[in-house]
Amino acid sequence: MTRRGFTLVELLVSTALILVVVTVATAATVQLLAQTRRLQSRLHLDASASIAHAKLNSEVTSMHPCAAVWLSSSTSGSVKSVELVFMRGTFSTLDWPSVVPPAQGSSKRMNTTEQFWTRWSWRSDTRELQVAASRPIRFFRIAANQARNYWKIPGGSKMPGGLFSTFVSIPQLQRETGTTTSPNSPEDLLNTNAWQSGEARDIGDYQDLVLASRPLLTECSDLSIELGNLDGATKLADGSPLQWAAPGTYVDAQEQTGLTDRPSLVRLRFTLTDPKTGAVGTYSFSCSTPSQTAY
């Protein structure tokens, strides 16, 4: 019996067929992997947006109904910035911290506050949406050689010994808008609870917000914050020039004029991008604020 091997033509044809099959299978696998990565990226973007929505909703729904609110946006060169500042309450009783003051011979446990100033800020150059809450307690010391504003110390008296004293600074619960020279700036009002001792840790609430800011979203672009007010008007902060403040009631509950010009709805819109896969998602969320009658 005579055995015949494959001819050269048969080998070439079979090799070509194998190459075609391998090429098609490889292309399909690469395409499937790319689609899987894009899908995972989009799921990651959706999850990040959901976290932002949950945090915005939790903070906006606990917004103090009678405290001042600031919304601003601007463009410096090619850099856009957006900022929203308001007061909110705690999410639960577990948010009420207690601390032991480090003063000499002190062992008394101190409760602080159930109110926090909150700041949402975004810059187009960093592409980060940052969120911060004022710390419920801040310690700092005033040494003997540092300038002091004694009128801010209860009773106007010097501390015993004159060497140092430890103070506790809690969020200032003022609810009026800023000064007449800068009525739309939260710095003027929120920094008034600094003792101005010269100590580096002696800061006010707004400076504390800036230092405490942490990224909530990265690779975030085209962000805008829109407020819908009780009187039906809307304010949009998207980088265009805007300086706006909603007045609050005074501490004794006396109402200021124009109190209907307050946020009843907060809308956040932004775009997220995955730099590795190029996946892009645009999101828009709306959250309602508490009614003033709830206070």
SSE blueprint and pairings:
Elements: H1 8-60, E1 69-76, E2 79-89, E3 98-99, E4 110-111, E5 115-123, E6 128-133, E7 138-141, E8 166-169, H2 186-190, H3 205-212, E9 214-217, E10 220-229, E11 234-237, E12 242-246, E13 263-273, E14 280-288
Antiparallel strand pairs: 1-2, 1-12, 2-5, 3-4, 5-6, 6-9, 7-8, 10-11, 10-13, 13-14
Summary of the model, kept short:
The protein has 295 residues and is α+β, with helices and mostly antiparallel strands. It has helices spanning 8-60, 186-190, 205-212, and strands spanning 69-76, 79-89, 98-99, 110-111, 115-123, 128-133, 138-141, 166-169, 214-217, 220-229, 234-237, 242-246, 263-273, 280-288.
Quote the distance from N terminus to C terminus. 103 Å
By DSSP, the count of extended strands is 14
Largest sheet: 6 strands, antiparallel
- Residue share in β-strands: 25-35%
- Helicity level: 10-25%
Radius of gyration: 29 Å
Supply the number of helical segments: 3
Structural class: alpha+beta
Verbal overview:
With 295 residues, the protein is an alpha+beta fold. 22% of the residues lie in helices and 30% in strands. Strand 1 and strand 2 (79-89) form a beta hairpin. Mean pLDDT is 77; it is low at 100-109, 153-157 and 160-164.
Give the tags:
295 residues, alpha+beta, six-stranded antiparallel beta sheet, 3 helices, 14 strands, 30% strand, elongated
